[in-house]
């Protein structure tokens, strides 16, 4: 084999191709007899392959060339050949060892993010159209009244989804939301508010007010008789009853000849109760006289500001861009014109309608993508058109009952803008299409809204937008949040069965509300009830106690090197569980962002940590701080992603007033630790000298004084006192619950003693 391996390759190929080993050895011996394999030997891949094919040195002494070559190769490669097929090059030309062949691990297929898409009614793999960039349009509120928990259902849920896409899956999300500030509801409410305040300003006399209320109740009663919806009918009956009951004291006061303040109080009470009834009546009489456009803009401006305050209080991220209908009227006019030019819209008596029949029959288009079974539902279509747009005259302007308004000719008492078809205002559905189309173009990744908007609003949006862009893919993924019920009952602003966000925040914190939402699927119905909130409170307490215990562990002084203790079986098992839980959390988030399962996995992880810490405490051993700190940081990170931790907090829930730069915990904890150690020393001396009064004072400090300051001390026999900063209201509630439990225990003890005494009295002769 003197010379290059390239020269020997042809001979070796023939030798390596011989299947019989004895014949192969003889051929190799003949080949080696013509080569020097000791001096100037240059090892080749062919030598290695031939050597690997041999099971050992030849037994025939006549094959001495192979025998000498074999010993030489074995010395270079470090041992006898391994059986099996030829392997890769194992040695260099200088006879040194080389790295063995490496094979990558098989690994596992990573799970893909899937989202429930209303367009397909299944979970589809989420694939943005432009790399990691995600364009998202969300239907915003119609601002004519206070924001309620139905709004919170949508906007907290979408805030969670947005944060997960952005902060967990690392998508670049561009989030656009609209404010509907031109709408039939706004027009009617603004007009009624204006007319009622003008009426109140006239300071009607008691007799005149009663006469007007009776007049207003006549059309109201007729409306009540025509109402077939049982929920709406019940609401109207309650309203009528309240007005009648409020009128009776005023009627009695007039009969009794009362005057002055006594009469004024009754007048004001009736005005408040009859506001809705009087407003409807006044609007029917004088609504067409309201022509000042500022009247229609002041109401939505006020309620939009209140909406933003509510969203900030709920820790909902603001949109990247906010659009208002009133600011996009020129774009809406252009959008409508192009739909007409494309042949899918038609003008009729100053209004413009979308031709649903022509669109549905056009190649490449389909109407009713989201809820095809609802196409033709006249009740739903009328609700979509608005109370001011469903008169017999308006309905007669349409070619088909399913057609809907793109542009509405304004009637007296309605705001208006100039356009090619005469003065008018935008239809409801066209607003979102024009604004989203202007900012996001011909196709967006995600469109979101409440479940009740699917038909007709979102189906009409899809139709008119695809008619404008002449495509079939305006929205790739349609996400709809589930309904919200209140203690099992349907929530409805029109039925006056709703809870405002401000009212909800008076009872529970934004974090507690968000945890309640996280504990339910974003696309399913959520029941806002005492049971739902109690579950959220319990979950918050569980996490908070864990964070407080870990913080107490981390505050214990320890040398830098000493914190890295040897892991025993308990730590190894807890760590394995930790990584399993993280994998389960990831799978759940990939599965339609299933936060309910995520929270259950986090709860289970905290439970395992608590068992581990309890076992360590029972054995008088401190838990492993580095492992628990790692788990606590992970849980904190996930809660931040979900928006359940509002402030900057390195570990656990922040303590102190939101929005302040002061880190209350790091500021006061050193002093509380000194106080705790001093108290522990005093207790030790008191026990040694048997001074119960001092022990009682120490207990009073723990049970009565410090809880008022939001500080909890936990005494454990044989272990240092645990110091925890907790929300003051939580501590006071715990104190009250403990007091009630002790009273109940005492009551049961007294009851048992009384029964024993009665039994003894019966037995005693």
UniProtKB/TrEMBL annotation:
Q: Which Gene3D superfamilies match?
A: 1.20.1050.130, HUPs
Enzyme class comes to: ligase
For the keyword Phosphoprotein, the answer is no
Q: Where is the tRNA synthetases class I catalytic domain?
A: 126-536
Q: One MF term in GO for this entry?
A: ligase activity
Key words, A-Z: Aminoacyl-tRNA synthetase, ATP-binding, Ligase, Metal-binding, Nucleotide-binding, Protein biosynthesis, Zinc
Q: Which CDD domains does this UniProt record tie to the protein?
A: CysRS_core, GST_C_CysRS_N
- In the Enzyme Commission scheme, what number(s) does this protein have? 6.1.1.16
Cofactor(s) named in the record: Zn(2+)
Q: Where is this region: Disordered?
A: 734-765
What catalytic reaction does the record list?
A: tRNA(Cys) + L-cysteine + ATP = L-cysteinyl-tRNA(Cys) + AMP + diphosphate
Keyword hit for rRNA processing: no
Q: Which NCBIfam families match?
A: cysS (TIGR00435)
According to its UniProt entry, what is the function of this protein?
A: Catalyzes the ATP-dependent ligation of cysteine to tRNA(Cys).
Protein name in the entry: Cysteine--tRNA ligase, cytoplasmic
Q: Encoded by which gene? A: CARS1
């Amino acid at each position: 084999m003197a010379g290059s391996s390239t020269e020997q390759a042809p001979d070796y190929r023939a030798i390596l191709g011989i299947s019989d080993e004895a014949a192969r050895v003889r051929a190799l011996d003949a080949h080696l007899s013509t080569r020097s394999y000791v001096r100037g030997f240059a090892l080749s891949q062919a030598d290695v392959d031939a050597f690997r094919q041999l099971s050992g040195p030849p037994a025939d002494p006549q094959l001495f060339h192979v025998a000498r070559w074999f010993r030489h190769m074995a010395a270079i490669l470090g041992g006898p050949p391994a059986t099996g097929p030829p392997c890769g090059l194992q040695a260099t030309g200088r006879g040194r060892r080389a790295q063995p062949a490496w094979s990558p691990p098989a690994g596992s297929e990573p799970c893909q993010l899937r989202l429930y898409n209303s367009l397909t009614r299944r979970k589809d793999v989420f694939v943005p159209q432009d790399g990691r960039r995600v364009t998202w349009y969300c239907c915003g509120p119609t601002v004519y009244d206070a924001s309620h928990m139905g709004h919170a259902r949508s906007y907290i849920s979408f805030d969670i989804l947005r944060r997960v896409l952005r902060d967990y899956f690392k998508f670049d999300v561009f989030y656009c939301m609209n404010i509907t500030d031109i709408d039939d509801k706004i027009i009617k409410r603004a007009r009624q508010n204006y007319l009622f305040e003008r009426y109140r300003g006239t300071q009607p006399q008691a007799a005149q007010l009663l006469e007007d209320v009776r007049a207003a109740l006549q059309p109201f009663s007729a409306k009540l008789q025509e109402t077939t919806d049982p929920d709406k009918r019940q609401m109207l009956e309650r309203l009528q009853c309240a007005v009648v009951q409020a009128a009776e004291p005023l009627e009695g006061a007039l009969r009794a000849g009362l005057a002055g303040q006594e009469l004024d109080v009754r007048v004001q009470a009736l005005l408040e109760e009859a506001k809705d009834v009087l407003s409807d009546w006044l609007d029917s009489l004088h609504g067409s006289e309201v022509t000042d456009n500022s009247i229609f803009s002041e109401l939505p401006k006020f309620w939009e500001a209140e909406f933003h305050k509510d969203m900030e209080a709920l820790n909902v991220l603001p949109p990247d861009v906010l659009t208002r209908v009133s600011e996009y009227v020129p774009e809406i006019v252009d959008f409508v014109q192009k739909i007409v030019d494309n042949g899918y819209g038609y003008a009729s008596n100053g209004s413009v309608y979308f031709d649903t029949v022509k669109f549905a029959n056009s190649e490449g288009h389909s109407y009713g993508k989201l809820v095809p079974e609802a196409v033709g539902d006249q009740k739903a279509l009328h609700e979509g058109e608005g109370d001011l747009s469903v008169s017999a005259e308006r309905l007669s302007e349409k070619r088909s009952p399913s057609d809907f308004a793109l542009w509405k000719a304004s009637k007296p008492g309605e705001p208006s803008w100039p356009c090619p078809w005469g003065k008018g205002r935008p239809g409801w559905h066209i607003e979102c299409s024009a604004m989203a189309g202007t900012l996001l173009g011909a196709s967006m990744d995600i469109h979101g809204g409440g479940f009740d908007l699917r038909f007709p609003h979102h189906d009409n949006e899809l139709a008119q937008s695809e008619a404008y862009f002449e495509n079939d893919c305006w929205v790739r993924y349609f996400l709809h949040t589930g309904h919200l019920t209140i203690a099992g009952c349907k929530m409805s602003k029109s039925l006056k069965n709703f809870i405002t966000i401000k009212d909800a925040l008076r009872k529970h914190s934004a974090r507690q509300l968000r945890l309640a939402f996280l504990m339910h699927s974003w696309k399913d119905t959520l029941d806002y009830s005492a049971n739902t909130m109690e579950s959220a409170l319990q979950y918050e307490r569980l996490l908070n106690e864990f964070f407080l215990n870990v913080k107490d562990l981390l505050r214990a002084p320890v040398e830098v090197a000493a914190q890295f203790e040897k892991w025993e079986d308990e730590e190894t098992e807890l760590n394995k569980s930790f990584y399993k839980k993280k994998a389960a959390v990831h799978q759940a988030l990939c599965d339609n962002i299933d936060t309910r399962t995520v929270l259950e996995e986090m709860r289970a992880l905290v439970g395992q940590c608590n068992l581990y810490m309890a076992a360590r405490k029972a054995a008088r051993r401190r838990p492993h701080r580095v492992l628990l700190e790692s788990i606590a940081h992970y849980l904190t990170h996930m809660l931040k992603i979900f928006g359940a931790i509002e402030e900057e907090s390195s570990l656990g829930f922040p303590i102190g007033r939101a929005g302040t730069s002061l880190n209350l915990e790091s500021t006061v904890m050193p002093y509380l630790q000194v106080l705790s150690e001093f108290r522990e020393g005093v207790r030790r001396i008191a026990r040694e000298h048997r001074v119960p009064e001092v022990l009682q004072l120490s207990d009073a400090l723990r049970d009565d004084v410090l809880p008022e300051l939001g500080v909890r001390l936990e005494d454990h026999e044989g272990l240092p006192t645990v110091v925890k900063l907790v929300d003051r209201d939580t501590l006071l509630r715990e104190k009250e619950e403990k007091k009630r439990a002790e009273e109940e225990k005492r009551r049961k003890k007294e009851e048992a003693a009384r029964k024993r005494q009665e039994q003894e009295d019966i037995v005693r002769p």
